[in-house]
């Protein structure tokens, strides 16, 4: 950046050619948010900056440093076959700032953990094959078909994205971290040949393009190349291809053969012989001379398409066929939790969903089926959801890999129930088979993990670039990168500290606040903390362990807002506000146990502050150093919208270690103005109502604990009963959970999301509510 030809002018004004930070911010906003026509209209207003038109604005942007590698366009021909228009291949080298690590083993007790690629077998095998002290820079590529023109021409391309496996997976997986780079746009051309050969020639063209783009990487994989890491250390590096992320059709396009006795340019004869062997007819695959590249391993199973899309296309359809409108009614009736998608219109009418919505439906689909489908049908669906959840583990052991295989076996044992229910259908009626390619693909998941590490890190992110082709698309990409780099440069160049552009080495905290870490933001916060708010990046996870309420074992943090929702309430006023008839009795009992005194002597002096919500924050069940985003839990009093209040359920510490202890939080409060010294009262407390566990094991079909409301029966009045309640310190809570009603019959019309937690007595403890809870319950109670 400092070698740029306009750097002398930036010694005085870091934002040159713009007047200052204000004009730079305006230019950045216009380019990122408005079309060129809208920019032109804006610059015709009476007030305007020094640039008077969009062309002048774009000229200014072209004078900025940090434009990165230049895009190049290559035109070539396939031997003997013409296309409708010239073939343009756009590419650039983006192999810099590599982060380098070494293969290593991690053990949890006697079990080996497999997470990052560096803990896998392939990392050790490749390291053993290269020169002593050489460094592996594993390459990950991805592609997806993308339209690039808006109107009539209908041009489609394959954008090729690339990253390196040295970058930590949770950083690399965030789109805003820009760890993935688009390195090429490869056209999907139409050839002037018979339609039977159109796909064959298009696929050959794709392989030729990738072959050209990755030519330097293949050389480096074979003979090595010196590279410099972000710390300015020089390494002798090898670049094996360890993963190519694509959906099943693209994987089939890549996994082809390169040898045949028939002339490959004789399309008729070659394709005829290839089909006999179930091959595609591609004779020069791009990976043929890429050392260590094996499509059996680098075509890694992909979570988004192979699992979430499979669930939407198949599993959800099976459930829709058997439940009909009842499925929508049950989804609408479920208790609303903060941060969880609530399908107010049901799910059966939705034709397209995002991956996030697929995951939200997976969370509750198993208990929602209860009472309508057969137990064997539920067991089959549950086995599939088990597999989907296990496959997303960021860390695997031999046990978890075995559990994945077991889940598929259980599905296979019970899948006949889906056929018997005629849930698997097509246009002509019910089907009696499970010939689903993605279902067969799942057999490879357990085999792939020891080779490449956890699969969640190999996730496909779709990119849509709907712009005109050659000039426009390269200019847009260059502007995006230039703006991002110049923004970082100006923040650091305007810093009051000395030498702000030098790499800063700082010690990482023992705890990392969540996976939402942005490397650029962390760097700026260290060099110039006052300017980090100006940098656009994911909002960092707030660490409540620093200033919140921390449990005795320091593993859980809680937070309530500074200003309570209700202040200085008497005991009677809080009891009336929340409609808790036995609140004063529960408080008296808590006071007696913890203070050994008479609360009635001081009750008129005690005032209470109340909160309607509170946050709980946990460490990751997979990475103990990682602090997860906090979970917002509700304890709202009755209102016109929620006549029973809106109150969530939680797990609490339990003396019975073999079963979970679940309560519903009805009120969160803290006594103030205490006339006595009572530490047990001088803290945030929760009034809770209890559930009892039915049986000593989870229900076998759903795999979930079945709970029922806990009631206190009056011996003198057998017909009257009241819910069992108590007051506990908020620090006794260990996890927020979700309860799903046990729907034994068709749902009554009066049931909705505001009263479903009050009308039913029996509930399922939903272990699929989130992946962290799924793992926690499996470890603690064997669910």
TrEMBL record:
Pfam families: DUF6830, Plavaka. Residues 554-657 form the DUF6830 domain. InterPro entries: DUF6830 (IPR049233), Plavaka (IPR041078). It comes from the Eukaryota. This is DUF6830 domain-containing protein.
């Amino acid at each position: 950046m400092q070698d740029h030809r306009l750097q002398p002018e930036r010694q005085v004004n870091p934002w040159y050619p713009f007047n200052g930070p204000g004009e730079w911010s305006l230019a950045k906003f216009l380019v990122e948010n408005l079309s060129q026509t809208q920019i032109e209209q804006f610059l015709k207003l009476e007030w305007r900056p020094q640039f008077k038109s969009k062309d002048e604005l774009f000229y200014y942007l072209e004078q900025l440093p940090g434009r990165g590698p230049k895009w190049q366009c290559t035109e070539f021909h396939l031997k003997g076959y013409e296309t409708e228009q010239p073939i343009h291949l756009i590419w650039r080298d983006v192999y810099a700032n590599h982060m380098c690590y070494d293969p290593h083993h991690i053990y949890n007790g006697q079990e080996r953990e497999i997470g990052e690629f560096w803990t896998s077998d392939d990392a050790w095998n490749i390291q053993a094959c290269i020169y002593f002290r050489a460094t592996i820079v594993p390459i990950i590529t991805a592609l997806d078909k993308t339209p690039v023109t808006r109107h009539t021409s209908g041009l489609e391309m394959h954008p090729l994205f690339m990253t390196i496996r040295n970058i930590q997976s949770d950083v690399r997986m965030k789109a805003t971290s820009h760890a993935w780079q688009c390195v090429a746009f490869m056209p999907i051309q139409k050839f002037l040949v018979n339609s039977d050969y159109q796909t064959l020639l298009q696929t050959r063209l794709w392989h030729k393009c990738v072959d050209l783009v990755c030519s330097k990487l293949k050389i480096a994989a074979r003979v090595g190349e010196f590279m410099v890491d972000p710390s300015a250390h020089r390494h002798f590096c090898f670049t094996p291809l360890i993963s190519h992320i694509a959906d099943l059709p693209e994987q089939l396009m890549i996994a082809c053969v390169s040898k045949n006795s028939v002339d490959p340019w004789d399309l008729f004869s070659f394709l005829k012989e290839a089909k006999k062997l179930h091959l595609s007819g591609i004779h020069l695959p791009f990976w043929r001379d890429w050392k260590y590249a094996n499509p059996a391993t680098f075509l890694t199973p992909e979570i988004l398409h192979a699992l979430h899309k499979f669930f939407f296309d198949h599993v959800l359809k099976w459930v829709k066929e058997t439940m009909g409108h009842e499925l929508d009614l049950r989804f609408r009736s479920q208790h609303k939790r903060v941060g969880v998608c609530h399908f107010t219109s049901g799910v059966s009418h939705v034709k397209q969903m995002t991956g996030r919505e697929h995951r939200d439906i997976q969370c509750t689909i198993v208990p929602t089926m209860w009472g309508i489908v057969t137990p064997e049908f539920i067991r089959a669906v549950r086995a599939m959801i088990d597999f989907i959840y296990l496959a997303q583990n960021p860390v695997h052991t031999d046990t978890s890999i075995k559990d994945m295989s077991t889940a598929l076996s259980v599905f296979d044992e019970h899948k006949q129930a889906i056929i018997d229910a005629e849930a698997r259908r097509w246009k002509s009626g019910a089907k009696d088979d499970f010939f689903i390619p993605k279902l067969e693909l799942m057999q490879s998941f357990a085999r792939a993990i020891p080779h490449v590490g956890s699969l969640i890190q190999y996730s496909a992110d779709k990119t849509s670039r709907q712009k005109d082709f050659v000039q426009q698309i390269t200019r847009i990409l260059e502007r995006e990168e230039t703006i991002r780099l110049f923004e970082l440069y100006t923040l650091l160049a305007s810093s009051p500290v000395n030498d702000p552009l030098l790499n800063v080495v700082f010690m990482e905290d023992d705890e990392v606040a969540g996976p939402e870490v942005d490397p650029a933001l962390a760097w700026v916060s260290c060099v110039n903390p006052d300017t980090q708010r100006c940098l656009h990046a994911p909002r960092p996870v707030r660490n409540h362990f620093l200033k919140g309420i921390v449990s005795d074992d320091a593993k859980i943090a809680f937070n309530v807002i500074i200003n309570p929702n209700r202040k200085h309430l008497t005991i009677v006023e809080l009891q009336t506000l929340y409609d808790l008839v036995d609140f004063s009795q529960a408080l008296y009992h808590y006071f007696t146990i913890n203070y050994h005194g008479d609360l009635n002597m001081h009750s008129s002096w005690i005032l209470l502050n109340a909160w309607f919500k509170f946050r709980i924050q946990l460490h990751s069940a997979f990475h103990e150093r990682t602090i997860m985003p906090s979970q917002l839990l509700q304890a709202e009093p009755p209102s016109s919208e929620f006549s029973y209040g809106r109150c969530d359920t939680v797990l609490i510490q339990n003396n019975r270690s073999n079963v979970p202890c679940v309560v519903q939080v009805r009120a969160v409060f803290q006594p103030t103005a205490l006339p006595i010294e009572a530490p047990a009262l001088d803290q945030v407390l929760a009034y809770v109502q209890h559930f009892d566990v039915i049986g000593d094991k989870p229900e076998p079909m759903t795999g979930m604990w079945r709970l029922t409301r806990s009631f206190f029966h009056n011996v003198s009045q057998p017909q009257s009963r009241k819910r069992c309640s108590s007051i506990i310190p908020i620090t006794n809570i260990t996890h927020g959970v979700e309860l799903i009603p046990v729907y034994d019959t068709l749902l009554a019309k009066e049931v909705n999301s505001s009263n479903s937690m009050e009308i039913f007595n029996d509930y399922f403890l939903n272990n699929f509510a989130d992946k962290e809870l799924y793992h926690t319950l499996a470890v603690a109670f064997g669910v």
